[in-house]
Amino acid sequence: MEKILLHMCCGPCACYPVKRLHEEGFEPVGYFLNPNIHPHQEWKRRLNTAREFAEKVGIEFFADNHYRLREFLTRTALVVESFDSVHFADGFHKRCGICYAWRLSEVARFAAENNFKFFTTSLLYSRHQNHGLIKKFAEHYAERFDVKFHYEDFRVGWQDGIDLSTELELYRQNYCGCIFSEEERFSNDIRKERRKYFRAQKKPSVES
Ligand code: SF4
Predict the structure, then answer these.
(1) How far, in Å, from the CA of 177 to the mean position of ligand 1?
(2) What is the pLDDT of residues 109-143, one digit of tens each?
(3) Ligand 1: does its nearest atom lie under 6 Å from the Cβ of 13?
(4) What residue spans define the domains of the chain?
(5) Helices within the chain (DSSP H only)
(6) Of 96, 184, 185, 186, which is best to mutate to test ligand 1, by the most ligand atoms within 8 angstroms of its C-beta?
(7) I need a labelling partner for 45 at 20 to 30 A (CA). Which of 55, 69, 133, 174 fits?
(8) Is 181's C-beta closer than 6 angstroms to any atom of ligand 1?
(9) pTM metric for this prediction
């Protein structure tokens, strides 16, 4: 059976991809590398959940064990403007591109350095991520590190993944990961601003 390195953004998102990859004759090996997750206790909890999942389904598992808050903030500081939490182009923030590129470049490098022929990512399972951009970056880094990217639209197994993670009693987080996404999820001020922004976008333009 061919091994494939599966980047796990978290345990629940990896449920359907692992099932699907097994069906396709692969032997998935989990790799948790997510320096985008904050604060520390949340990162630790998601790492432990990913490990718990790997143990429950019996797959090999590796993890980047370093919490890298400062590096994430340094990388994203230039694109996180004061209105970034409210105003975002096409539903996605500029910082997400940096976040995907960082993670996928390290995953592709890890795959190449550890003699995996293929890699893929559970980010392709999420309905809340920029699927096209993830695919583009993964293809780019696959070429750069000379390893094959296995593309698959895992979003088709959305409900299946939810059911599996519930059966396995995995912790399910309620925000994407970075400290900005946590603020966007829970700040009433930001939610209000966003509603206002989107209402304004729907209005026919009266200028010019
Ligand atoms: S919202 Fe999610 S994908 Fe975007 S930067 Fe934050 S953690 Fe990364």
Answers:
(1) 6
(2) 999 999 999 999 999 999 999 999 999 999 999 99
(3) no
(4) 2-202
(5) 11-23, 40-57, 69-76, 94-113, 131-145, 158-167, 179-186, 188-202
(6) 96
(7) 133
(8) yes
(9) 0.92
Q: Please name which of 65, 61, 48 lies closest in space to residue 12, comparing C-alpha atoms.
A: 48
Instruction: Indicate the pLDDT class of residue 55, thresholds 50, 70 and 90.
Output: very high
Could you please report the per-residue DSSP string of 120-150? EEGGGG-TTS-HHHHHHHHHHHHHHHT-EE-
Dump pLDDT digits (tens) for 142-197: 999 999 999 999 999 999 999 999 999 999 999 999 999 999 899 998 888 878 87
The domain 2-202: what is its CATH number?
A: 3.40.50.620
